[in-house]
Design brief:
By secondary structure, this protein is α+β, with helices and mostly antiparallel strands. It is built from 9 helices and 5 strands. The chain has helices at residues 5-19, 25-46, 56-83, 86-103, 105-131, 138-157, 164-180, 184-196, 274-278; strands at 201-205, 210-211, 233-237, 243-250, 255-258. Residues 89-96 and 281-288 have low confidence and may be disordered.
């Protein structure tokens, strides 16, 4: 599901930017701010571009984005200084400010609310980085989801109307992402089994220089975050009985992605029933 969200946000950001020069001055700035917020949210969800995708197509895409920004800047300059005129612009600013107080409160509230949700994304990413490597696993994920849900309820019922929606959006994003990733440890096991296709396999943590020994290490917040290194690497035994790194875990995609960029990895021993080794009990049949 998260794979399609960034594309939708990018499209919404593009639409807001395109229509902004044709709006009244008060809404013009609000549309640009909204476009920037939506773009930021899309980038946070999408994350950085994987090393395998940094090719000529990626460079062309960046060039097209730069050209769009330049063209938009030219159109905005024409809108503000040619069609409006400097003197008329100053007059419109005063008039618009008076109108904003009456007519643009809902737009401002929507912007503040979306800003709260974007701040929630930043908070989740930062918290997951800070808590990476701590024990707790799924219990830690549930605890954070419960606290964020309670805070969202308080924001909706106890906080003043002006500040309630941004706080509600902030905590709702934290709670939603925590709930959506509650089954990450199970999904890692199932994805690894599917990727291995019956071959023995094991999991290693490049940042910890160790093999995974318990499911608690695979929780959304507990999983050590790799930074420039992979978060988690799947090692599969090949036909020559040698362990070969095959894929890395993508937290945003919630699946293994083929390819490993790490130059060195800790040792691990591939096994046919690896989930028995790191879990207290095998996955239930209905989870497979």
């Amino acid at each position: 599901m998260l794979n399609t969200v960034p594309a939708s946000l990018y499209l919404a950001s593009f639409a807001l930017a395109v229509v902004s020069p044709f709006l009244p001055l008060g809404l013009l700035w609000r549309s640009l701010i909204g476009s920037a917020l939506v773009l930021t949210a899309g980038r946070l969800i999408a994350g950085g571009t994987h090393w395998s995708d940094k090719n000529a197509g990626h460079a062309i895409g960046l060039a097209m984005v730069l050209m769009f920004i330049v063209c938009l800047s030219v159109v905005l300059a024409a809108r503000l200084f040619i069609f409006e005129g400097v003197g008329r612009q100053e007059k419109n600013i005063t008039i618009t400010n008076n109108q904003d107080t009456k007519n643009h409160k809902l737009v401002d509230l929507a912007l503040f609310t979306f800003a709260g949700g974007t701040a929630g994304l930043v908070f989740v990413i930062g918290l997951a980085t800070v808590l990476g490597g701590l024990p707790g696993g799924k219990f830690l994920d549930v605890g954070i989801a419960v606290v964020a849900t309670g805070a969202a309820v308080l924001a909706a019922t106890r906080v003043r109307w002006k500040f309630g929606p941004p706080l509600l959006a902030f905590n709702a994003v934290v709670a939603t992402l925590s709930i959506l990733t509650l089954n990450q440890s199970r999904d890692i096991i199932l994805s690894a089994e599917a990727f291995a296709q019956g071959h023995p396999w094991c999991l290693v943590l490049p940042t910890e220089e160790s093999e995974v020994t318990t499911l608690n290490e695979l929780g959304f917040y507990s999983l050590p975050k790799g930074g420039v290194r992979s978060h988690l690497v799947l090692v599969i035994q090949d036909k020559h009985l040698a362990p070969v790194p095959k894929a890395h875990w993508s937290i945003r995609r919630q699946s293994f992605v083929e390819g490993v960029s790490d130059s060195s990895l800790p040792d691990c021993k591939p096994q046919s029933a690896y989930e028995y080794r790191i879990g207290n009990e095998p996955l239930r049949e209905q989870d497979r």
